[in-house]
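Below is how a single chain appears once it has passed through the pipeline. First comes the sequence as given, then the structure the pipeline wrote out for it. We keep one example in the README because the format questions we get most often are answered faster by looking than by reading.
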Amino acid sequence: MILDAFKLDGKVALVTGAARGLGEALALGLAEAGADVAVLDRLAPEECVRQITALGRRAYGLTHDLAGMTPNRADRIVEECAAQLGRLDILVNNAGIIRRAPAVEFRPEDWEAVLDINLSSAFYLSQAAARHFLASGHSGKIIHIASMLSFQGGLYAPSYAAAKSGLAGLTRALANEWAASGINVNAIAPGYMTTEVTAALRADPERSASVLARIPAGRWGEPADLKGAVVFLASQAADYLHGAILPVDGGWLAR
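Resulting structure:
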């Protein structure tokens, strides 16, 4: 049955930035589809672990700050996940930060911090996961969490736009290299969601109204709106999908 292709029974996922917000919803969506999930965050992810185990799935919490990621650290994170849950099949690179300021005033440390977390850590973790998949002799799924700013420039967030545009390019580059080895690399581009990243926008009445007026669905997205997309991309149903960037945006890009 086609529905069986969407099941994740027996699979193990690692989701970064999973203590709250989008990452928590992504982790729960994967668990609801049958996966066991390692949840990583710089904050202790106990609540996400609790919710996953309440679904009858195994969960493992990892507390790591992804700043200053190196290939060796990434390898250790993947090895820890696989050792605790028996294997690794799915990596979701969700962790991200944003810094806002006019470009002429943008501080070098804010530029570097955003590129470090949002792009470099995603590459090193993808590299480590791919090594694991290849050494284990099984296929794997890598899912990046991109952004509307993978397509657009935005305002007052030059490092975020650069990192998320880079993540879109990285998705395609890694897909080209690894597709023949049974590794699917794709991305989800959330629209304007009710998370900490958009808190400043939503707190500004003028900008919030401007954003909402452009969303055909007529509302801001909720983290749970990403569950279907991540389950699809993590599942057998997406085996022939490589290098795609899937907008989940309430129709924002269609305007």
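The helical segments are 21-32, 46-54, 71-85, 108-136, 158-178, 199-203, 205-214, 227-234.

See the next section for the split statistics.
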